[in-house]
Amino acid sequence: MAIDRRKVLLYSSAAALRFLLFSSFPLLPDLLTGRAEISTPVTSFKRLQEGLFLYTHNVSPYDGGVFYQAPLLLPLFALIPSSVFSLTTALLYILTDLLCTESIIRIAESGIARSSRLFSSPRKGNHWDSLAVGAAFLFNPFTIATCLARSTSVFSSCAILYSIASAVERKPSKSMLALALAAYLSLYPALLLPPLILLCHDQTAEKTGSKPKYPRLPIELLSFFFGALAWFMIVSYMLTGQSWEFLRSTYGVHLLLPDLTPNVGLWWYFFIEMFDSFREFFLGVFWLHLMAYVGGLSFRLRTQPLFVLTTLIGIFAIFQPYPSIADASLYFALLPLYSHVFPLMRYTFFAMATILYATLLGPAFYYLWIYAGSGNANFFYAITLVWSLGLSIIVGECLFAVLRDEWEIERPDMKGKDVRRI
To answer: Hey, which residues does 115 pair with through a beta bridge?
Structure first.
């Protein structure tokens, strides 16, 4: 088997950069771990350490009311000796980033973003190299910051990417297992199940050369997904002393939003100002809004299920209860797969300028509010609205570009002409 020297160089340089930052700036990981933009109540490494301390002292990790993460993370980190804990965790997170990149490269090499069973873009010849797509993820500042902060969101991101890569490579069982793991860790990836089943269906049909029986394959995949999820739940039940207490602390915190720690999302400030009598109603409205995109996008973009997955990940980075820059970095990792439609996007400069503006001013506004005392919650929430606006523009522009690309196949006479709203 030939060794790809370019890939080795890419992986080694990215790993060296991360290890250099971990070793040269030992205080940087703890600093980033406390940042509201990177760590949330459900992904914070400090909260994981709190739960790990209780777990190793034979106390329920959920008794402290601080730990909201999946129980299976506890034995994983409990195996690490305390003498080399910092070094080993750094290597673990570096390895996880490399595994994410490997999945992204596999997806890019398949070419399914440009040409699939039901759709072939007229611009499929204009695309980035697969290693360039991987490098865009590895050297993204958001990805590096997430790795240094040791946010547990990297594990769910890795599971999502591996799930998509397995579906693309016609391995539906592995895809469902990986998605079940992602849903077990973060809950919201379960909403990716419909388009992922469509992707598995299309890839299986392309492999066999005949259309598989529609009810049979989805039922098999659903059974495998929920079976794997049930297995994770049973193991967690055993780990927590045969108690289902972890369900409320791990998944109830997503559904009921008991912790209103500030983050880059839209929920926390809204529910701080919300009257208690309306809380349950608006929790339902917010979750229905998040779930409403799944059916509409899966139906309208049936011919491009990978793009549906990409768009949903971008939407979740904006509208999920506890988002962070890790969710945005996952979306930005998949965007270069659609580099062939980048020329069709209209407001790229404005969107990227908005993201850069929010990235630079977000920490400053948070400092003015929390530390300097010269601002209030409106300062930080205003900049999170700008951040969400920037992401929304990128999601909308990419969606427009893909629909325009699809439309030009139906109307080749309109290629290169401006679209006007009537």
So the answer is: 120
User: What single-letter DSSP state applies at residue 115?
Assistant: B
C-alpha–C-alpha distance, residues 265 and 79, integer Å: 33
Residue 115 phi, psi (nearest 5): -150, 120
What is the tens place of the pLDDT at every residue in 73-130? 999 999 998 888 999 999 999 999 999 999 999 999 998 988 888 888 888 888 889 9
> What is the rounded CA–CA span in Å between residue 362 and residue 319?
18
Which CB contacts under 8 angstroms, 24+ apart, belong to 174-178? 175/200, 176/200, 176/221, 176/224, 176/225, 176/228, 177/224, 177/228
Please give the model's pTM, rounded to 2 decimal places: 0.95
- CA–CA dist 334, 103 (Å, integer): 11
From the number of C-beta atoms within 10 Å of its C-beta (0-12, 13-18, 19+), residue 240 rates as: buried
Cβ neighbours around 313 below 10 Å, total:
26
Please answer whether residues 104 and 333 qualify as being in contact, where contact means their C-beta atoms are separated by less than 8 angstroms: yes
**How far apart are alpha carbons 39 and 152 in whole angstroms?**
9
Say which amino acid occupies 353: A
Whole-number Å distance between alpha carbons of 390 and 395 = 9
Task: Dump pLDDT digits (tens) for 381-415.
Answer: 999 999 999 999 999 999 999 999 888 888 776 77
Structure tokens at 105: 């490269």
pLDDT one-digit tens code per residue, 336-362: 999 999 998 989 899 999 999 999 999
Query: Distance between CA atoms of 266 and 189, rounded to whole angstroms?
Result: 19
d(C-alpha 87, C-alpha 82), whole Å: 10
Rounded to an integer, what distance in angstroms lies between the CA atom of residue 259 and that of residue 44? Answer: 13
Select from 206, 205, 204, 175 the least CA-distant residue to 192. Answer: 175
Torsion of Cα atoms, 334 then 336 then 342 then 347, to 10°: 60
Spacing of C-alpha 169 from chain mean position: 20
Number of C-beta neighbours around residue 187 at 10 A: 20
Q: Residue 35, Cα to own-chain centre: how many angstroms?
A: 18
CA 399, chain centre distance (Å):
18
**Secondary element (H or E) of residue 255:** helix 252-256
Token match 């490399």: residue?
98
> What's residue 374's pLDDT?
79
